[in-house]
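Re: folding output
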Amino acid sequence: MKRSSWGLGWQWRCSGVFVIQNNTEAQRYEFFEAGSRIGFVQYEMHEKQMWVLYTEMRRKFKSAARANRAMGFILEDARRSRIEVVPFCPAFRVFMCQNPVNPALVPEEWHERVDGAINGEQDEPDRAVLKYIRFTGSPWRKSSAAQAAALAS
């Protein structure tokens, strides 16, 4: 496991396969697997608050375990940095409702929204987060670059 400081961007590695890195310049946490970016969580910084806007992952890497690991890391990073988290992202609100330690990171005016975020989704808590993540790409479709090259021929 490897970590770097907040100012340089936090990074977490697990078995050299799944990497989470804070790209402070782009204001997003990026997820990498086998050297390719598979997703990210976009945020904006407002003084000592991190506004989590949305989560995006490539469809072929869709996994509740990856999403939960990444969100847990991001919240732990915010806790260490003493930054409040404002979860505009519905996937983050669901994750925070499922992990009762995390709502302490949320500003007081957001507590009610976080407490009621998962109405009726308790039956599959690990997969509920996936319902709110933007997925890009299709595992069945060839790349558009390859299609454009075929059409040009």
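--- second protein (sequence, then structure) ---
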Amino acid sequence: MKEFFIYQPMLDDLEETFRPMTEFEDIIRMHLKFGMPFPNKPKVLGEEMLEFRAKFLMEEVLEFVMASMMGDIGKATDALVDLVVVAKGTAAKMGVPWESCWDAVNIANMAKIRVDKGEGRNDFDLAKPPGWEHPDIERIVQENTYRFDPNED
């Protein structure tokens, strides 16, 4: 069984797809363009890829912080977008169903509450109210393996 696969013929098909692609599909398309493989089932990154992707993510965070500290909105925004691209690319390399996971985390986050500034808190904190439940990402990953299909309705 192959550990990775590449969606070879789909790159041309994307040019004929008329529905707007999601950001995650844009990332898949970029990886396809450069012949980068994807796992055929969800998995954590191997040590070498993990090290590469972690450094890549940290580099973009640092660029964002530095640009923000310099007051450069253009460079800060560019770094922030790059950070999202790298994060979603990492998810693609893991073979996870990004949109399904995003939806579950968003629902859970929307169930949180705003808290008053108090000890160890700031004006930006949210809290988990009584009865709040974590999204079951493990189940989502196992049940909804990302399948990129440009012919999907």
